[in-house]
């Protein structure tokens, strides 16, 4: 057995297959996942919403997962995908912000800088075939400039007026493309967010009816307490739908 | 002298003769052409007086648009229409077949066709072929029992719904319906809602595009609005105030007559006859 093929285990233990142990050193599949995040710019800053569900495959295992977190003074980070990788990213960002604060030079990292840092981290991990299995949404306001960007697990990054991850791309973005405008007030923004989250609740199987809305403005970040959306099931056609067509449903 | 073996006529059914050669070609990297699909947005809603069906008009062959203005709303009966998504040949063939079966049934029974009849004929056929006939349909119509709207999946399952979307653009269209649909809307509101849903599919899904077709079916009356909306026409036409002349411009005309040179032979031989 050549040296290069030597598995990274204790010499006393006989490895079963070298590839098997090497594979456990990198992410192959996500396990506990969060579903979509929807965010857009409004008059005073950025509005972001995510539900609080963490699915373990097809079971809804965790129902109080906070998937939107404030970063430093100027940004909000929302993530979908593997929750453990999200927690790891939060630790990296914590360290980043800590070092920035230690400089104590009156400047603080804005959303553009944090977005760039995240892009580099995600892309580098992808190059090593060991990705952080997340789609990240980074929004913030600094010196009056609003910024909203997204980074995928392979390092694709872009900036836009409204973004969504996962299923939100298919269900929420069409609504946002039609109904978003530059100068929405906070109330209008929340109504539009609720509209998107309601459609996601109806049509995404991993959605949970418990969502958190977060906003970030020049003054700072506010994450509102979780609440549920009202759903409407009272269509006449849903009562006895197969009255005319026996055998269908 | 009779031949030792007689060539029997083929008994019908699928001939597997070319399968081995196809497998060999695939292994060498020569793949068969992809099916012409209608990567699509098709929708239907039930409104106050009946049913409105809508569809986009793009047919794709892999990444290429092979027909930019095809018809996806197929005729089944005077009071029943069916939108089709999936493999174009399958949707055409299956709707044509059931349409003629319905016509024969109308002659036999002397009555207007019912939507459940079309539904049952379609789902039995599709289930029989275990999903290999890749047709996903939105069937709508108005008969004596009232307005009906159904979706039929390639494996043969059906749904009875007040609003339905199918095809690759179904999520974009469904997001419009889930946020804006109400029961008992009027015909104009319904046409607007269906157009909005199809436009959401056209602009947000790559498999759908071009124009919007609408079909309104009410009791005893139907309106087929082919190309009701053309949201993609002439968007990038250059608008300029000057025009170029169509033919090559004539700058100068100068005529130089050539000197005539003619030889006249006097008293030559007459032409022989």
Describe the overall structure.
The complex is a heterodimer of chains A (249) and B (273). Chain A has helices at 18-23, 83-103, 111-127, 168-171, 173-179, 186-203, and strands spanning 32-34, 37-41, 45-51, 54-56, 59-62, 68-71, 75-82, 134-142, 145-151, 157-159, 162-164, 211-217, 220-223. With 249 residues, chain A is an alpha+beta fold. Chain A has one domain (30-228): Aminohydrolase, N-terminal nucleophile (Ntn) domain (Glutamine Phosphoribosylpyrophosphate, subunit 1, domain 1). In chain A, the strands form two sheets. In chain A, strands 1, 4, 5, 6, 7, 8, 9 and 10 form an eight-stranded antiparallel sheet that branches. A five-stranded antiparallel sheet of chain A has the order 11-2-3-12-13, covered by helices on one side. In chain A, a hairpin with a 3-residue loop joins strand 2 (37-41) and strand 3 (45-51). Mean pLDDT of chain A is 88; it is low at 1-17. In chain B, helix 4 runs antiparallel to helix 5. The longest helix of chain B has 22 residues, at 88-109. Chain B has helices at 19-27, 88-109, 115-128, 170-180, 187-204; strands spanning 36-38, 42-46, 50-55, 59-61, 64-67, 73-77, 80-87, 135-143, 146-152, 158-160, 163-166, 212-218, 221-229. Chain B is extended, with a radius of gyration of 30 Å. Chain B starts with 18 loop residues before the first helix and ends in a 44-residue tail after the last strand. Chain B is an alpha+beta fold and 273 residues long. Chain B is built from five helices and 13 strands. In chain B, strand 4 and strand 5 form a beta hairpin. Chain A binds chain B through residues 167, 170-175, 177-178, 195-196, 198-199, 202-203, 235-238, 241-242, 244-249, and chain B through 46, 115-116, 119-120, 123, 145-146, 148, 150, 157-162, 171-172, 174-176, 178-179, 183, 196, 200, 203-204.
């Amino acid at each position: 057995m050549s040296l290069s093929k030597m598995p990274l285990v204790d010499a006393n233990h006989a490895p079963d297959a070298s590839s098997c142990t090497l594979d456990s050193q990198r992410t192959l599949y996500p396990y506990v996942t969060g579903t979509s995040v929807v965010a857009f710019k409004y008059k005073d800053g950025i509005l972001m919403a995510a539900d609080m569900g963490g699915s373990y495959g097809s079971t809804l295992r965790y129902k109080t997962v906070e998937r939107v977190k404030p970063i430093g003074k100027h940004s909000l980070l929302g993530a979908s995908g593997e929750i453990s990788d999200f927690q790891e990213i939060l630790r990296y960002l914590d360290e980043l912000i800590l070092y920035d604060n230690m400089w104590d030079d009156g400047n603080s990292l804005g959303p553009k800088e944090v977005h760039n840092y995240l892009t580099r981290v995600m892309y580098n991990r992808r190059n090593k075939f060991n990705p952080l299995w997340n789609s990240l949404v980074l929004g913030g306001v600094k010196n009056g400039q609003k910024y909203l960007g997204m980074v995928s697990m392979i390092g694709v990054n872009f900036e836009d007026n409204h973004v969504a991850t996962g299923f939100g791309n298919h269900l929420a973005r069409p609504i946002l493309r039609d109904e978003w405008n530059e100068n929405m007030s906070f109330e209008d923004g929340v109504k539009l967010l609720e509209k998107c989250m309601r459609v996601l609740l109806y049509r995404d199987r991993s959605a949970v009816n418990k969502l958190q809305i977060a906003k970030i403005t020049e003054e700072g970040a506010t994450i509102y307490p979780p609440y549920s959306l009202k759903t409407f099931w009272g269509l006449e056609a849903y009562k006895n739908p197969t009255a005319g067509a026996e055998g269908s449903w | 002298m009779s031949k030792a073996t007689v060539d029997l006529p083929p008994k019908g059914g699928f001939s597997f003769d070319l399968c081995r050669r196809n497998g060999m070609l695939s292994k060498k990297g020569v793949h068969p052409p992809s099916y012409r699909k209608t990567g699509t947005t098709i929708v239907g809603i039930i409104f106050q007086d009946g049913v409105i069906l809508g569809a986009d008009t793009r047919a794709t062959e892999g990444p290429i648009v092979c027909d930019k203005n095809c018809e996806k709303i197929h005729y089944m009966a005077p009071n029943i229409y069916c939108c089709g998504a999936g493999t174009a040949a399958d949707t055409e063939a299956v709707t044509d077949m059931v349409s003629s079966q319905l016509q024969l049934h109308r002659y036999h029974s002397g009555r207007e066709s019912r939507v459940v009849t079309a539904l049952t004929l379609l789902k039995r056929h599709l289930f029989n072929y275990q999903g290999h006939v890749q047709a996903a349909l939105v069937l709508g119509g108005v008969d004596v029992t009232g307005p009906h709207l159904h979706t039929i999946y390639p494996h043969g399952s059906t749904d009875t719904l007040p609003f339905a979307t199918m095809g690759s653009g179904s999520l974009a269209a469904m997001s419009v319906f889930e946020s804006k649909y109400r029961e008992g809307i009027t015909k104009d509101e319904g046409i607007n809602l269906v157009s909005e849903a199809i436009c959401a599919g056209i602009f947000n899904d790559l498999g759908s595009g071009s124009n919007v077709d609408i079909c309104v079916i009410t009791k005893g009356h139907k309106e087929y609005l082919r190309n009701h909306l053309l949201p993609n026409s002439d968007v990038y036409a250059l608008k300029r105030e000057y025009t170029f002349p169509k033919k090559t411009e004539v700058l100068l005309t100068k005529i130089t007559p050539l000197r005539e040179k003619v030889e006249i032979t006097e008293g030559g031989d007459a032409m022989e006859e």
